[in-house]
Structure formats: C-alpha cells, structure tokens
Write a sequence for this structure.
C-alpha cells in the first residue's frame, strides 16, 4: 500500500472528523504539526504528502525520493515549490471552493460585531446592568442596520460573489472593484473604480488574492479616501494592508473600525501592532474553519489522493 503522510493535520481535523476514508487508501501517518527540521524524517518514505502550511521547498522535495504527489489541504499552494516538484516528477494538487460559505459568513459576523454591538450588550447584561436599569430597553452605543448601506467588495471571485448575495439579501447596495467586470458581471452589483468604491462605501471587504500589484493596496492614501464612519473587513490576506497605516487611521478616527481574520505574520509570534487597537476586531485566521468547511476540505483531499492513485489526478496545479 502507498505510504501517505499528513504533515499538519490538526488545523483541518482537530479530532472532530474521521481519517477513515484516507486510511483506506494507504498506510497513513498523521502528524498534528511538523516543524521544518522534522519534514525529512517524517516524510522520508512517503509517496503522497498532504500539507496545509508546512513548506515543501526545493531542498526538501529533492530529499524525498519516493515522493509522487503533494496534495495541499488548502486553495493557496504557495507553501510548495511547484517548479521543483515538476522537475522531480511530483504532481501537486489543491482543494478549491470548500470554504466559500464559511468565509462569507465570517465577513458578516465581523461586520455585525461592530454594528449590532452584541458583545457589548451581552457583557452589560452579564454584569447585571439590565437588572438595575429603570428602563425595559437600553442602548450603550447606537446600533446600525445593514439595509440601505453600501458595501464595496474588492475582488468578485467565488467568495466575493457569495458576500454580494448575502449583502443584497440584507438590502445593501453592492459595489465592486474587480479585474474582469464584463466576464463576471452579477445582477445587483455595480462595478466601479477602486477610488469610487472607497469613497462611497460604508463597508469595504477584501477578497482578491495577494499579488505583487496589490500588496499594501490598503494604505495611508486609500484609507484617506474612505468615509470616517466606514468599516474595513479583511478575510483575504494580511499583505493587502499596510498595518501601520491602518493602525494610524483607527487611532486617529479616520475610519470607524476594522475586522481582520488575517495578519501580515501568522501566528503573530512577536505580537502585531494592530492587536489591542480600539475598534479593531481580530480573529485567528479561522473564517474558513467551520466544521462543515473542514469536512469538505477533508473529503476533497481524499478524492485528490484517490484520483492520483487511479492515475487520473484532479485539481492539479498547472493543468
């Protein structure tokens, strides 16, 4: 049976899912996490490796003579040197569109965290403020309806389109700045320039892949064009934002808030300048990680391995 090694299985499956289907495909070894120094030892006999964030660069791939397939347990495959894999005859595949619903849901969880003030009022009730109040209802801070507000979506791919659908259901007006407006036109969505989207939107949410061209696209200049009442949401990539510029804008009141699921360094081992900044909600890159989403990811990973073993690779990078 082929030897299959999962280098970092904990994030996808912390114990609430079953590896049974993967076990049926070969001799399976699952590691919760693998530091770089142990990759060679743990994967030395592997024919198939599954990785999420463990890097497989040229130096590691060339030391794995039995390796035939790398299945990335994610959509992004930058952790693998695809060129080096190709040189060594190793197939690289990934998993696509498994987290669309989860990430879109998280966008609105962050937004509602600001505008519905659920946490603030729950804390107040827990501290017995309601019991002491002479009023049957009270607000510690104004809450805000989504209906009628304008949301600007940067990047209208699968997740961006799902966010647009939800926003329209809430009664929001939807703007988007997107590379392919004619190809990807969508009922209810108006395509604009990046500058117009910044200026008009009550919410900006980022859903474009990180590239050389858009790295740091949210910076001092772009933040200055946003409404002082606007909220910035980022569930894409931390590198889309110049974090010092965002910190300054939040502290100076130039925008009202930011909801982030991604940072420039993950995990932020040495801290991050945005952690603890007022009006900045940060979650640990877990927008994708609902149980349903992780189950889809595991199922698709099984199908990738199964297809490779059958001689019909699926989701192959570069094909």
């Amino acid at each position: 049976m082929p030897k299959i090694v999962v280098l970092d299985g904990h994030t996808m499956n912390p114990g609430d899912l079953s590896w049974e289907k993967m076990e049926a495909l070969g001799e399976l070894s699952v590691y919760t996490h693998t530091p770089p120094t142990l990759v060679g030892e743990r994967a030395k006999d592997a024919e198939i490796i599954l990785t999420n964030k463990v890097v497989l660069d040229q130096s590691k791939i060339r030391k794995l003579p039995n390796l035939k397939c790398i299945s990335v347990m994610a959509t992004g495959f930058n952790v693998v040197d695809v060129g080096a894999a190709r040189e060594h005859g190793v197939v690289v595949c990934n998993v696509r569109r498994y987290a669309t619903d989860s990430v879109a849901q998280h966008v609105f969880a962050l937004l509602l965290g600001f505008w519905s003030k659920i946490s603030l009022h729950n804390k107040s009730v827990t501290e017995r403020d309601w019991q002491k109040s002479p009023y049957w209802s009270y607000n510690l801070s104004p809450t805000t309806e989504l209906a009628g507000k304008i949301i600007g979506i940067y990047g209208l791919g699968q997740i961006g389109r799902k966010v647009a659908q939800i926003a329209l259901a809430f009664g929001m007006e939807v703007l988007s700045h997107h590379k392919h407006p004619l190809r990807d036109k969508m009922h209810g969505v108006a395509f604009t320039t990046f500058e117009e989207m910044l200026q008009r939107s009550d919410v900006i949410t980022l859903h474009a892949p990180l590239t050389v061209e858009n790295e740091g696209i949210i910076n001092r200049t772009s933040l200055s064009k946003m409404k002082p009442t606007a909220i910035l949401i980022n569930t894409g990539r931390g590198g889309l934002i110049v974090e010092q510029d965002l910190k300054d804008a939040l502290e100076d009141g130039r925008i009202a808030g930011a909801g982030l699921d991604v940072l420039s360094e993950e995990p932020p081992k040495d801290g991050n300048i945005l952690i603890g900044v007022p009006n900045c909600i940060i979650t640990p890159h877990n927008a994708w990680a609902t149980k349903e989403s992780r189950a889809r990811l595991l199922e698709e990973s099984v199908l990738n391995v199964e297809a490779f073993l059958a001689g019909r690779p699926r989701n192959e990078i570069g094909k």
In short: Residues 263 and 272 are 8 Å apart (CA to CA). DSSP finds twelve helices and twelve strands in the chain. The mean pLDDT is 96.
